[in-house]
């Protein structure tokens, strides 16, 4: 795979992931509103994810890379996941964030290893955003993620879904 093709795939999947994250948080906030103790934390994370997405949107446009064709699916699926976890309670919403961010940290770390020095602009953004995602994970744990009903099962299912979404978005 050429450097350009690899960077295009990475950029496509990363933009899709940030878009999906904004939709998850939108679903959570639609259910929780500002009533839950974790709502301000969710709103703050949502704002960061939107800023990440805007950077990747700009990079897609500048480089002439098409977004994933699955974006409408990720819009609906992300919102539904966010709303469903929020319906289970604030701890389940935080469990969703912890699970997603665990996979995104792993994914971004793999990308950085693969990129090396080939695309410094993309690598710098991935590294910057990975640090934000790690902070989101830690905030979710502090917000009660591990107290969610059936946490290991919920976390495992969400992490599996993230890995599947990553693979599909790289290619489609």
Structure characteristics:
single chain, 172 residues, mainly alpha, Ferritin
Task: Report a brief summary of the structure.
By secondary structure, this protein is mainly α. The protein has a single domain, classed as Ferritin (Up-down Bundle), CATH 1.20.1260. The chain contains six helices and no strands.
Give a verbal description of the structure.
The chain has 172 residues and is mostly helical. It has one domain (3-171): Ferritin (Up-down Bundle), CATH 1.20.1260. The protein is built from 6 helices and no strands. The longest helix has 30 residues, at 3-32.
Beta content comes to under 5%
Please give the number of β-strands: 0
Structural class: mainly alpha
Helical residue percent band: over 70%
Biggest β-sheet strands, sense, barrel: none
Layout of secondary structure:
Layout: H1 3-32, H2 39-63, H3 71-88, H4 90-115, H5 120-142, H6 151-171
Helix pairs in contact: 1-2, 1-3, 1-4, 1-6, 2-5, 3-4, 4-5, 4-6
């Amino acid at each position: 795979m050429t450097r350009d093709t690899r960077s295009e795939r990475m950029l496509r999947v990363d933009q899709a992931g940030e878009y999906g994250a904004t939709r998850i948080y939108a679903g959570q906030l639609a259910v929780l509103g500002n009533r839950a103790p974790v709502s301000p934390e969710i709103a703050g994370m949502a704002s960061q994810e939107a800023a990440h997405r805007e950077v990747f949107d700009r990079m897609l446009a500048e480089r002439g890379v098409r977004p994933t064709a699955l974006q409408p699916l990720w819009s609906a699926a992300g919102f539904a996941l966010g709303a469903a976890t929020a319906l289970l309670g604030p701890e389940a919403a935080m469990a969703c964030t912890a699970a997603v961010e665990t996979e995104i940290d792993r994914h971004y770390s793999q990308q950085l290893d693969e990129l090396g020095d080939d695309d410094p602009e993309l690598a710098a953004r991935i590294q910057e955003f990975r640090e934000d995602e790690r902070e989101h994970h830690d905030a979710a744990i502090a917000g009660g993620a591990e107290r969610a009903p059936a946490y290991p099962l919920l976390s495992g299912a969400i992490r599996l879904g993230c890995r599947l979404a990553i693979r599909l978005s790289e290619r489609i």
